[in-house]
Amino acid sequence: MGTTKNFFETYLKKETLFLDKSVLQSSYTPDTIPHREEQTKQVAEILAPALKMELPSNLFIYGKTGTGKTLVIKHITSQLIEITRPQQVVLQALYTNCKLKRVADTEYRFIAELCRTMGKTVPPTGLPTDEVYKIFLRTIDDTKQIIILILDEIDHLINKAGDEVLYNLLRLNAELSKCRISIIGISNDVQFIDYIDPRIRSSLSEEEIVFPPYNALQIQHILRDRAEKAFKKGSLNDGVVEKCAAYAAREHGDARRALDLLRVAGELAEREGLPNVSVKHIDLAEDKIERDRLVDIVTTQPQQFQAVLYSSINVCAERGDVSTGEVYDFYKKLCSHIGIRPLTQRRVSDVIAELDMLGIINARVISKGRYGRTKEISVSGTNQEKILVVLKEGLGLK
DNA sequence: AGGTATTCACATGAAACTATTCTCTGAGTTAGG
DNA sequence: TAACTCAGAGAATAGTTTCATGTGAATACCTGT
After folding, report:
1. Digit-coded pLDDT (tens) for A299-325
2. Most buried by CB count within 10 Å: which residue of A284, A294, A365, A378?
3. Does the nearest atom of strand B lie within 7 Å of A67's Cβ?
4. A241 and A225 both lie in a single domain
């Protein structure tokens, strides 16, 4: 008790490295977006007609994660709304992230989500889908206005729900009398547009803008900008920003990642009670971020997934690369041991594929000729111990 | 030796089934006037 | 008679199971030299 109190007291007294940590968080919106002037201008030009109550073209934006797509769009739409507020032009920007709200991965839920952002309460299930469409229509069509619908990570939505959603959305304008909708799609996947119906494609991407990745220098610039606000003077050693930028540039110029890296490195240094962040903290930070990510994913997996993962790790530890069948055998024994009903091999095969997608294990299909065709499963294990602990916890093993 | 055909051990697909959540509807029930 | 309750029908989703079909290449099996 007393020691905890002491700890808190010294904690409070301890010098912090940060001035304002929130500057490094992904929710932070800077006033200016460096190295995105060109894109900002393009988007502004495309959306400008909305000011005169004309419908802007539909827009499609590509770019890898952390290239500032969302930032630019949010920035511009909020400015647009700011300007229109005193005038009689009514403009609304509806922003939906199709991935973050992982509930919105079917057509029904997606539309329901839109209704909810409009302030309507829609039951999560129980209504026919077109009923929800009607609710949405009625809600937006009661005033003369322009709506800019922003669909972030749209590829996610289409992958799960199919492209009919888009078709219906695009057709919506025909059924509206007072209100007009313009759609902005944002996607990480550059090839995504090739997979959807050409008719939808042409009307959805009347305009296209590509956000190229930042290069190392640009990331350095961004980092320095933010670091100046986030950290106290002189708390970053030489080379820290450079190294952060280099790491992030290696990963297709992801600025968000660079910022995370810097923030976590700062936290680590601070926890050690050091007066400044040094290069080695970047490495530690990268390790920590990866480990946290894995542990987080694993704990949130359903029990069956955990069981399959546990089996994979164990069998792999025993004899290196293994096949689906071997994992399945172990898995069946595990199930009877802990008393859960085993899934079919068909399902386990899918589960393994999904675990592979999550990056927890590696599975690739190989043919061993006469000896069949199977997945070759391996576990790249730098952080296995921690994951195993989590798994045993989740499965109720000693 | 060179060329086909087999064959293994799953992969991959599609459809159908189960369980669950949630709304809506209308019949039956209740309580108050 | 109005208000309330409650079961059942329907809509929708997640997670499987069942059934069916596909598949890459190491081997087995030919064939003709």
Report:
1. 888 999 999 999 999 999 888 889 999
2. A294
3. no
4. yes
